[in-house]
Amino acid sequence: MKRAVLLLLLGCETHRAATQQSAEPHPVPAVSPSAAPSASVPAPPPLPHSGELVDLPVEGYGDAVVAVPESAPRARPLLVATHGNYDRPNWQCEEWRRVVGTRAFVLCPRGEARSDSPSRSDVRFTYASNEKLERELEAAIKALEERFAPHVDTKDVVYTGFSLGAIQGAKIAARNPERYPRLVLVEGGYDRWTAESAKAFAKAGKRVLFVCGQKGCQLTAAQSVKLLERAGAQGRTLLADGMGHSYGGAMNELVAENLGWLTEGDDRWSDG
Fold first, then answer.
1. Which of 84, 136, 160, 186 has the most crowded Cβ, counting Cβ within 10 A?
2. What angle do CA 239, 156, 211 make, to 5 degrees?
């Protein structure tokens, strides 16, 4: 009788333990990161005005002109092109679009209208000072970012200038090399460098390409290259002999041949 009662009690305990074990939740196997589905990166929307030359409203200033590149899977870098005195922004944008092709946005600030323009249908422009031009550039870059995001990358802008635009650019870049670390100065700005300005530029600036159509420009630019190199930056002079005080043509060809040197180390320029 005692043996029967003992067996009955042992059976109850075994049943209770089995019931408790079956009621406990089973652990869910962890999913390794490699097994998780990867989210695909969506392609950027089509680029508005792809391949066109368009006007860009700039708050507080006249419309800038923009040469828009073709659509691309990643953002394109920015090159700003400043004109000379008694010049027009669209002329610079047309020339620089020929040089860079589809590799970059080209942004051309308008400046201030000259009162002695040939006619109302042929208005020419100037830049009153490098300080005013720098403020106009910042406003134009902001407008470009707002209109063409996410297609434009405005980090490390390439600054180019002809004549007056080059003269103003040498001062702007020495003051703000973080924004403009690479320069192309055409027939201007070659005689505006001192040991102090070269040192200021070299803090963040990288390379300066001097483009000349006259031998006097080239000789003086060579001295500026020495100042830049002593300060820790790099410089190079190009001469399109016989071109005189102008741009385009043979000068464009020289710049195109040296664009790889100017943008070396910036992978954005190798795409396209």
1. 186
2. 5
